[in-house]
Amino acid sequence: MRIRLKVGLALGVVVLCIGIGSLVLYFVEDLDWIDSIYLSVMSVTTVGYGDKAFKTLPGRLFAAIWLLVSTLMVARAFLYLAEARIDKRHRRLAKSVLHRDITVEDLLAADINHTGFIR
Fold first, then answer.
1. CATH code of 43's domain
2. How many domains does the structure of the chain reveal?
3. 119 in a domain, yes or no?
4. Which helix (H) or strand (E) holds 38?
5. Where does the record place the Potassium channel domain (predicted)?
6. What is the separation of C-alpha 71 from the centre of its chain, rounded to a whole number of angstroms?
7. Among the four 35, 39, 78, 115, which has the fewest Cβ within 10 Å?
8. Who contacts 80 (Cβ-Cβ below 8 Å, separation ≥6)?
9. What is the pLDDT of residues 10-28, one digit of tens each?
10. Residue 71 domain-assigned?
């Protein structure tokens, strides 16, 4: 799968997790929309200032599963972002190597066993 597609899907899943958490917080914990979005983002990103918390039993049960899944999705999104940067760097390096002219010094350096042949 292409790196950009993986990054887009991972970020989409993170936004979806924040949205699901916001909906549950709004309806189960009786928070207003701003507070539910705030608590969702703070919980998923593991910042957790501690000013808001899950108070009801259904909310806590949901949070136990939701926080585990959401935190793993955020970690996966960062993994794919790092992979995209490394892939971009490798492509740039490969392009510069492939478009460089080969010199006699390069051929001599490639003959590591000094036989006059490159294997």
1. 1.10.287.70
2. 1
3. no
4. helix 33-44
5. 14-83
6. 11
7. 115
8. 3, 6, 7, 10
9. 889 889 999 999 999 999 9
10. yes
The parent domain of residue 13 ranges over 3-91
Structure tokens at 17: 């997790």
Q: Which residues contact 2 (CB under 8 A, 6 or more apart)?
A: none
| Residue 82, domain member (yes or no) | yes
Please give the Cα distance from 67 to 62 (Å, whole number). 8
**In contact, 73 and 14? CB cutoff 8 Å:** yes
In this predicted structure, what is the pLDDT of residue 5?
87
Distances (CA, A) of 24 to 13, 18, 21, 50, 92: 16, 10, 5, 19, 45
* Rounded-to-integer distance, Cα 14 and Cα 8, Å: 10
